[in-house]
Every structure is written in structure tokens, then in C-alpha cells.
Design brief:
four-stranded antiparallel beta sheet, 3 helices, globular, alpha+beta
Length: about 110
């Protein structure tokens, strides 16, 4: 069954565009990774301090995701983390989910 990996980020108010640019411009080998399905960067609600963002990646299986996290491609994709100092209010919060039911549009 499908595995969904999500990281929640609280991004300092006023730095949202900078955060989005980091994600748009980072080196990503995701499309070439076995089991990769799709990636989304989601922007959520804001409060006085931060705006919520979620990275949302869909994989064919949990094992495919785990293999990605142990890959050289993963290390390259995350090597720019020091340049993001001050963007985040706290560390990202990881959540992983295995799909137990799915509905798709016909066709």
C-alpha cells in the first residue's frame, strides 16, 4: 500500500517566499528514485509568529521511502539545511502514514 511522508515546518512570518524559493531551487533526484510517486509543498495557516508548511511525498511503499532516506540523493537534497537558519521556528516534525483505504477518480 501507499506510504505518505510528511514534514511540518513552522516558518517565521515574513520569510515564506524565501522558504518557498529554497524548496523550488533545491537539487532533487526524487523523480528518479524507485517507488517515488509525487511531491507537494503545501502552505497552510499563519498566526502571529509563523506560517505552516508541509512537505508531502507519496511513495509506493514504506520501504521505498526508507531506501530514499538512506541514499546519497537524500544527503544531497538535504545538504543545504545550514542556509535555512532562522527560517524555521523549531525543527521540522515528521509524520509517516500507510494508506489503508483509497478512492480514485475513474479513468
Amino acid at each position: 500500500m501507499t506510504f505518505i511522508a510528511m514534514n511540518r515546518f513552522r516558518v517565521a512570518r515574513g520569510r515564506e517566499q524565501e522558504f518557498e524559493e529554497v524548496w523550488r531551487n533545491r537539487q532533487s533526484d526524487l523523480p528518479a528514485m524507485p517507488g517515488f510517486v509525487v511531491f507537494h509543498l503545501l502552505r497552510g495557516a499563519s498566526d502571529d509568529e509563523a506560517t505552516l508548511f508541509v512537505s508531502h511525498t507519496v511513495w509506493e511503499t514504506r520501504k521505498h521511502f526508507e531506501d530514499w532516506t538512506r541514499s546519497e540523493a537524500f544527503r544531497r537534497a538535504h545538504s543545504g539545511a545550514p542556509r535555512t537558519q532562522g527560517l524555521y521556528l523549531g525543527p521540522p516534525h515528521f509524520e509517516g502514514f500507510e494508506a489503508v483505504a483509497e478512492t480514485r477518480r475513474p479513468g
